[in-house]
Amino acid sequence: MMDITSPPDDADAQDAAAGVNARIAQRVRELRAARGLSLQALAERCGVSRSMISLIERGAASPTAVVLDRLAAGLGVALASLFDAGPPGGGPLRRHADQALWRDPASGYARRSLSPSGGSSALQLVEVTFPAGARVAYDIAVRQPALQQQLWMLAGSMDILLGEARFQLRAGDCLAMTLDCPIVFSNPQRTPARYLLATLDPLAPP
């Protein structure tokens, strides 16, 4: 018997993507305004075109992870800060259903924002599912102070190129990183990888 109580998966995914893109748009507008930056000034700081930033702020574009990381660097925050679910004071608990899920349109990797928006912790937790054969290269802009990040492999394997250092990670491995140089994430296997990212962002806005 057909289950007519559950909406189509594609419709759910589209609704979720639209919701996350709207939140990204709001966060970029808020952070830019808080720093007193014009669209042109932010464009010059992060290397993303003024027109693209305008589209992102209006929710009219689906930016890639690389573009969002450049924006985050220009705004002086961690990438995870652009996916915040809401303003501080939201409480110490974030239910699974309330955790924003976003998929990179370029590589297909999915990131779930785990950390509650309440409290004053600078620690941000993200769960990532990385497709087989996918690759994402970040040309990290130096932030002061540099972000500290740890990656804990939950399943599968990943190759991480951090500057000139290469690391092959398997399930259970944990890698500590200082994000002050280019970094490349790649999954050389035929199955997806899953890992937890913990980022300490001392400059995260209150």
TrEMBL record:
Keyword ATP-binding: no
Pfam families cross-referenced by the UniProt entry: HTH_3
Extent of the signal sequence: none
Domain HTH cro/C1-type, first and last residues per copy: 28-82
Keywords linked to the UniProt accession: DNA-binding
InterPro entries: Cro/C1-type_HTH, Lambda_DNA-bd_dom_sf, RmlC-like_jellyroll, RmlC_Cupin_sf, TransReg_Diox_bact_type
GO MF term set: DNA binding; DNA-binding transcription factor activity
Superkingdom of the source species: Bacteria
GO cellular component: cytosol
Keyword DNA-binding (UniProt): yes
Protein name, entry field: Transcriptional regulator
Taxonomic source organism: Bordetella genomosp. 12
